[in-house]
Amino acid sequence: MSPSLSGKVAIVTGSSRSIGAAIAKRLASFGANVVINYVSNASAAQAVADDINKQGAGKAIIVKADVGSLAENKHLVEETLRQFGRIDIVVLNAGIMENKKLQDVTEADFDKHYNTNVRGPLFLVQTVVPHLKAGSRVIFFSTSLTRASIVPPDYLLYASTKGAVEQFSRILAKDLGASGITVNTVSPGPIDTDLFRQGKTEQQINFFKGLHPQKRLGTAEEVSNVVSFLVSEEASWVNGQTILINGVGPWGFAWRTQLTDLFSGIRRMMGSQSRGAHDLL
Ligand SMILES: NC(=O)c1ccc[n+]([C@@H]2O[C@H](COP(=O)([O-])OP(=O)(O)OC[C@H]3O[C@@H](n4cnc5c(N)ncnc54)[C@H](OP(=O)(O)O)[C@@H]3O)[C@@H](O)[C@H]2O)c1
């Protein structure tokens, strides 16, 4: 049975493309009115909103806002309230990943990652919470990398921002739980999106596919399926959880054979300087 989200209003940050777009479309298909948020890609946001409005279930509006800016987060909330009159669901999906090793990381890289992935979600929740009633839902976005036994060194900044978000979620689940609001985190594993593909060769992408039992990447729709459950009434007793959506593989647990594959793949990707698998575990 499909959950009904009729009458609910959802803000989905970063919903012009990829995972956010799939979530916005799915929530709208269950009747929610959705806010399509983007930072630079107006035509993609318009295409998502047009698609939703053509389906005739929930309505979509578009609000441009850089989630890393407190002022723009405020604008996002005010515009949502002005046009839809309420907020029930906040999906903190917008995120960036620009990988660099320790010696190459700049202050600007640090600020950009922490503004978008950490500061933005926290202050957006702070701004939204006074408008949320019992039964509302907050969904944070992490990554399965926070649980992986091996993470390449250039994921340093990105993985650390997601670690911070998981702690927000864990603590806020109790704080906001007292008001009947659930707070959960989803942690996707490799999902075939622009963020995942950027900076990788086809060979590297095939390497990631090969690590999974089904020899493929996940899809944005597979993430949206889990999010639509978590925001539904049926998930009322699911709170403070981090749900891994990664089709298993080394992001979920370490099989010995996969570890061997992973280690040789990482060595191929990074040259001969990788340490032994046992050093990395
Ligand atoms: N793909 C994966 O394998 C994977 C794995 C684990 C976790 N995740 C997490 O899942 C989430 C979505 O990832 P994705 O792969 O769908 O990313 P994506 O393909 O890069 O899409 C990012 C979306 O976020 C928007 N965005 C970026 N910076 C923003 C900002 N400052 N303010 C507002 N919107 C902003 C983009 O808008 P524009 O179109 O305007 O640029 C776009 O709609 C992220 O939090 C990511 O960390 C992804």
Could you characterize what this model shows?
The structure is a single chain. This protein is α/β, with parallel strands linked by helices and 281 residues long. The chain has a single domain, classed as NAD(P)-binding Rossmann-like Domain (Rossmann fold, 3-Layer(aba) Sandwich). The protein contains ten helices and seven strands. It has helices at residues 18-29, 42-55, 70-84, 107-128, 156-177, 194-197, 202-210, 220-230, 256-270, 277-280, and strands spanning 9-12, 33-38, 60-64, 89-92, 137-141, 182-188, 242-245. It has a seven-stranded parallel β-sheet with strand order 3-2-1-4-5-6-7, with helices on both faces. The chain is globular. The relative contact order is 0.13. Residues 253-257 and 272-281 have low confidence and may be disordered. Bound molecules: NADP nicotinamide-adenine-dinucleotide phosphate. The site of NADP nicotinamide-adenine-dinucleotide phosphate has 32 residues, from helix 1, strand 2 and helix 6. Belongs to the short-chain dehydrogenases/reductases (SDR) family. It comes from Trametes coccinea (strain BRFM310) (Pycnoporus coccineus). Pfam families: adh_short_C2. One of its GO terms (molecular function) is oxidoreductase activity, acting on CH-OH group of donors. Keywords: NADP, Oxidoreductase.
